[in-house]
Each structure stands twice: as C-alpha cells, then as structure tokens.
Design brief:
- There is one protein chain.
- The chain has a single domain, classed as Rossmann fold (3-Layer(aba) Sandwich).
- The N and C termini lie far apart (about 50 Å).
- The protein has helices at about 10-25, 50-55, 75-95, 130-150, 170-175, 180-190, and strands spanning about 5, 30, 45, 60-65, 100-105, 155-160, 195-200.
- The chain is of the alpha/beta class and about 260 residues long.
- It binds nicotinamide-adenine-dinucleotide.
- Nicotinamide-adenine-dinucleotide binds near residues 8, 12, 46 and 86.
C-alpha cells in the first residue's frame, strides 16, 4: 500500500483533507510545522529545511498534496523560506524520491491585480499577482510546469479562491466549498492520466469572478454554490468599497509588507 504526503496538515484546508482522507480509508502521512489542534498525528517539519523535508519521503510515498506554507501576505524573508524554498524542497525531494504526482495549492491571487471590471477571469488570463504571497504561488506553478515537462511528474496546480465562509458579495463570488475542493484533490490523486493541469478551486457560484475555461479536462464538477451559505450570493458589489476595485480584494490594497 502506498501513502500520500499531505503538507499543511494542521491548517484549515489540511485539516479538512486529513479528515476526508481518513474517512475514505486513504493512507497518508500528515506533516506541518505545527501540531494539529485536534491532536491528530502530524510529523513536525519545517518546509524550509531540506533535510527535514527529505526525511518525510519514506519509500511508500507515491504522491504529494502540498497545502503547507504561508497562506497570506507576509514579510519577504518569511515568504521566501516557507513558500519559495519550502515549495522547491517539496518538488525536489519528491523528484529524488521517485514520486510521480504532486497536487499543490496555488491561489486566485496570481490574478489579483485585475480590475474588477475585467472579471470574470479565465484560466488562460495573464498572471497579475497582487502580493509577494501571489508571486510565491507563481513560483510554485513554475516548478509544477518544469517538473512535469522535464521530469514527467504529473502535477495539478489548484488556484484556490476563497475557502472561508463568505462575508461579502465579492467573497460569495469566489467561494470554494471544502467538499468540492476535497473531491477535486481526490480526483487528481486517482485519475490515471493527470498530466499537467491548472484549475481554479471555486464552487458553482452566481456571478463567479473566476471561471474554469477552457475546461481543464479533469471531469470535476463543483456540487456546491455560495447561495447555500450566504444571502450575499449574487448581491451587487459595492463600488465604493476599495476591496472591490480589483479581483484580489484587500490583498490588492496592501503596500509592501516590509515597509
Ligand atoms: N483558505 C483559502 O481560502 C485559500 C485560498 C487560496 C489558496 N490557499 C492555499 O491553500 C493552502 C492551505 O490554506 P489554508 O487556508 O489551510 O492555510 P493555513 O494557514 O490554515 O494552513 C497552512 C499550514 O501550513 C503550515 N506552515 C506554514 N509554514 C510552514 C513551514 N515553514 N513548514 C511547514 N508547514 C508550514 C502552517 O502551520 C499551517 O498549518 C495554502 O497554500 C494557501 O496559500 C488557501
């Protein structure tokens, strides 16, 4: 039996995936820099430490679900260590260990500087990062392309939109339900020929700001929409709210994190 290495296993989405994998009887090794709040077994390792990451790759690890790292804007050195060096360590240790599949968390913030008037954004749109965090996600997507094209590793980059409960009509348009995301990850783990894919992690929301066109060919159809969790679904965007000027919302309004 082979196992999946799940990074970020103590985080919000990692916890959700951990529970999903356990319920499905999927064998996995959970890792994070911090212990899990629910007391589950998590191998502690800093993604920025190549030796610690290499030790996670036991011979039975066949795939990686990489959800660890900083999940918002942060000072450059923190982004560099956790997201850039950390993601490199995951891809490179996976390659050296003979792992054939990597599913990793990117973000819709790679398009965050698009003016709202230009939405919805499709998968082929130019990259317009709204933060150093988003630049680190573009680095991860670059690794994904390289390690697929040159080393034949199947890769899925998921540009996750907003997985928290929507508090604004903008967030209702980019909501990503955990069950939809979990089915996407499971599909990418189990489908025979993944190749290289990029997809928005977004549910079937009214007036969605990001759309999965052209179709990524994954056969994944979201089953949920934000109307099930908020009356803000489909409500107009307040034009006076500065968070509604760009796709990336508040990220697009922030200055440099080191100032
Ligand atoms: N939640 C969302 O709406 C959303 C949207 C877009 C992208 N994403 C991406 O999805 C992934 C998971 O998001 P989340 O909401 O669960 O984030 P989270 O912050 O809740 O979890 C991230 C986990 O990574 C761990 N981590 C941070 N630095 C680390 C390091 N140096 N070494 C090892 N582990 C480290 C943290 O301890 C944490 O448990 C992240 O990559 C995030 O950027 C999330």
């Amino acid at each position: 039996m082979t196992r999946v290495l799940l990074t970020g296993a103590s985080g919000r989405l990692g916890t959700s995936l951990r529970h999903r994998f356990a319920a499905a009887g999927r064998a996995f090794l959970a890792t994070d820099i911090a212990p899990a709040a629910d007391g589950a077994a998590v191998a502690l390792a800093d993604l920025a430490d190549p030796d610690a990451v290499a030790r996670l790759f036991a011979p039975d690890i066949s795939a990686v679900v990489h959800f660890g790292g900083l999940s918002t804007e942060a000072r450059w050195d923190d982004i560099l260590q956790a997201n850039i060096i950390g993601t490199y360590n995951i891809f490179e240790c996976a390659r050296r260990a003979g792992v054939r599949r990597i599913i990793h968390a990117s973000s819709y913030h790679v398009h965050g500087m698009y003016p709202m008037a230009d939405t919805p954004i499709g998968l082929g749109a130019d990259l317009r990062p709204d933060s150093l965090y988003a630049v680190s996600k573009i680095f991860g997507e670059g690794l994904s392309r390289l390690y697929h094209a040159k080393f034949g590793i199947d890769c899925l980059a998921i540009r996750i939109c907003s997985a928290g409960t929507p508090g604004t009509s903008r967030e209702a348009r980019i909501w990503c339900n955990h069950d939809d995301l979990g089915r996407l990850v499971e599909r990418a783990l189990d489908m025979p020929d993944l190749g290289h894919c990029t997809v928005f992690g977004i549910s079937a929301n009214e007036d969605a700001l990001c759309v999965n066109t052209p179709d990524a060919g994954l056969g994944w159809v979201p089953q949920h929409g934000s109307a099930e969790v908020t009356p803000l679904a489909g409500a107009p965007l307040d034009p006076d709210d500065p968070r509604n000027r760009h796709l990336g919302g508040i990220f697009a309004t922030w200055g440099h994190p080191d100032d």
